[in-house]
Write a structure and sequence with these properties.
By secondary structure, this protein is an alpha+beta fold. Helix content is 40%, strand content 20%. The chain starts with a helix and ends with a helix.
């Protein structure tokens, strides 16, 4: 269990927020139309869409992201859109005096209607994310936000992409192709933008997982799966928000595709995703009991089952947190300062996650760091549900021997104990 999970765990934690890969994003406002289009390039399939109705504190929105439930791209009900492209900024070398304690772009999406309003927050807080974000509104304004400053749109289009520089030149042609095609034409329609996405998509180890064209004025989003630009899923944001909060698997909206299925089945998260889908179809408790019984058989063929069950437990927490926090990512997981500001709530998914963690931690005897990590997450679950005494015991247990705890468990455990009653 140790080797398989440790690789995934360290990758997730060390990558931090907005661990997007190479994407191509561009805005275009001409001919009375305002669009934003994007290729989302990454190595992890199983993209989620989640809809977040308006509250008294936030505007309604749609988010696209990986199973970790941090938004890679999002648009609110007023046509304000953002999307990230990976960058290699070293935040420790920048003079960031007032970084936002959570996800600044998520705050902007919930509180701002346009780029002008967003600029108020961007002037107040430092953008402390090592990725470039394109922010665009239905009025035709757009900017690219980086930790080093803000780049305003010049002309009627703007491109945000991420190719490394080698000997003073870009290492790939994606940004150039997008810029050249936009500059050489006065078109601004779905067909034209789709052609640019097709010309700049990626295949191989790093794939264009999905592509979007957002009509910011009408609140309509055109989605394409796995660089197939002949099949589209059309989203009417206003209509979807009326249905209330809900999460969907993007691939469920498309016909079967051998290329995408083959890519997904060869991914390390496939077993976890299969179990999680079974939970949604047959019930969480029934599925958990079935797989715990399977795990107890200790069949060598089931060597990947326990790591998958641990990932399922974490996914249950992420889903639960996302719904109870208006679509926000699980800030605690990323050790963000506001991730420790937890308002208790009840959710049966947390109870189910704790059941899995209790079984797995009892079974785990060799990897003490992993077992203590599970104690820590169980501590979080109990704290989130108002069981502070149990949470305190579990957090103490998780960091009782610092040499037997992951650094992130030690960090979060100490912080949580400092907040719990003495």
């Amino acid at each position: 269990m140790y080797k398989h999970f440790l690789l995934i765990f360290i990758t997730i934690i060390s990558s931090g927020m907005n661990s997007v890969k190479a994407c191509t994003i561009f805005s275009c406002s001409r001919g009375g139309e305002t669009f934003v289009a994007a290729n989302e390039d990454d190595m992890t399939p199983f993209t989620r869409i989640w809809y977040n109705p308006a509250t008294k504190d936030r505007y309604g929105s749609i988010s696209f992201g990986a199973p970790d439930m941090q938004a890679a791209a999002a648009m609110n009900e007023y046509g304000l859109f953002y999307d990230f492209a990976a960058a290699n900024y070293d935040l420790s070398k920048l003079n960031l005096k007032n970084p936002y304690k959570g996800d600044l772009m998520w705050e902007i999406l919930g509180k701002c209607k346009n780029v002008k309003e967003a600029m108020v927050l961007l002037k107040k807080y430092d953008y402390a994310i090592s990725a470039k974000a394109l922010l665009a509104d239905k009025e035709g304004n757009s900017i690219v936000i980086t930790p080093g400053g803000i780049i305003e749109k010049m002309g009627d289009f703007q491109v945000n992409s991420n190719c490394n520089m080698i000997n003073g030149k870009l290492s790939c042609r994606r940004p150039d192709l997008a810029n050249e095609m936009l500059a050489a034409s006065n078109k601004n329609n779905i067909g034209f933008l789709k052609t640019i996405l097709d010309k700049t998509h990626q295949e191989g180890e790093l794939n264009t997982l999905y592509s979007t064209i957002c009509d910011l004025k009408r609140g309509i989003i055109y989605v394409y799966l796995f660089h197939d630009y002949n099949t589209v899923y059309k989203i009417d944001l206003k209509s979807e928000l009326k249905k209330g909060y809900h999460i969907e698997n993007l691939a469920d909206h498309f016909p079967a595709s051998f290329a995408y299925e083959n890519f997904s089945k060869n991914h390390s998260l496939y077993l976890k995703e299969s179990i999680f889908q079974e939970m949604m179809n047959k019930g969480i408790e029934t599925t958990i009991d079935r797989y715990i019984a399977e795990s107890e058989k200790s069949d060598p063929q089931n060597k990947n089952l326990d790591p998958a069950l641990l990932e399922v437990a974490l996914q249950l927490i992420k889903y639960s947190w996302n719904e109870h926090n208006n679509g926000a990512m699980w800030d605690y997981w990323f050790s963000k300062p506001n991730g420790y500001d937890i308002t208790p709530y009840k959710d049966p998914r947390l109870t189910s996650a704790e059941k899995l963690l209790k079984y797995l931690s009892t079974k785990e005897e060799k990897d003490l760091k992993l077992r203590n990590f599970m104690y820590e997450i169980s501590g979080f679950i109990n704290f989130a549900q108002g069981n502070t005494a149990t949470a305190k015991d579990l957090y103490k247990k998780s960091i009782s021997n610092p040499t037997e705890a992951y650094p992130v468990t030690l960090l979060r455990g100490k912080e949580m104990l400092s907040r719990l009653p003495k």
